[in-house]
Write a structure and sequence with these properties.
single chain, alpha/beta, Rossmann fold, seven-stranded mixed β-sheet, 19% strand, elongated
Length: 340
Amino acid sequence: MKKYLALLLAVIMVFGALAGCSSPKETDPTPAPDTDNEVITPPETDEMDASGLKLGFILGSREHAFYVAIEDGIKAAAADLGFEAVVLESNLDGAVASERIETLVVDGCDAISLSVNDPTGSTPAIEAADTEGVPMFAFDCTSSETDVIKSFVGTDNYEGGVVGGEAVIKYLEDNDLTDGAVIGIIGYPEPQSCIDREDGWFSVVNEYKDEYNLTIVNLGNYKGDASTAESLMNDALIQYPDMAAIFTVGDPACVGALAAIKAAGAKTVMIGFDANPEAHEAILDPENGKIWIADVAQDPYQIGYSIAEQMVQYCLKNTVDATTILISPYLVDASNAEVK
């Protein structure tokens, strides 16, 4: 069976899915995903003694403060519950994630969880590990392409997109920009979490499209990379120099877009997603805060701690609290941002 796993993973790495950037264009409404999931209270940690368990975790990338905070939560759970945590990273690449899954299976992990940033590229490896008898879990991003994931813990990303959309509309209303404004979004249409954020945002702004005569522009796929976001923003401002506001599905996109907006001397404002330390710093900065005005905040530490709890509970009791556990996001602006 392990030879079968290795062969399958080799095929996955060769044929991992690739995605390109799209140019600015008018965007149609997108359907909302099912959001009828309850927020679950985590189990009492003193009920579980996980000493003797080895659990594997695959982060998206330690270059992102968000994943570093998730790792902090994982390590805290390991200290509290007594399991051994093996934490790797995938560099946001499905082929790399597949390699990491194989490594953790061979290493004898009792369960594995990962941020499924590239579902097409890593889902076959997830299913292969499940076939080997290693229970699989997901955090932050999951896959709709398989049903073997025992539990997923993450932000209610669709609701986060709604929060971002409402913030954009409020900005337009507060600044008398409700007649013919151009607004945009920088997306990342590979991870399901970012797709959900985009869908939530569109669910709000499309309601106001006709009433406020909005032009809604999809700036393209920034691929989780700040320099790509800067290039997308530069191109968009050439075509739409008076763009009023943008929403981004991740803070690295705001970092890149901020540089482009400042270089162009544009009056565009931004609302990001993640509320990483750089977002708080920018929002509170006298100059950058005029552009980066708000951010949708998550609780990555709790995501890391909670997924570890679910893995331990499954290994010890063969059960989880829920197949989907969502943690509510909230808006950070100058009124509640803080230096981190």
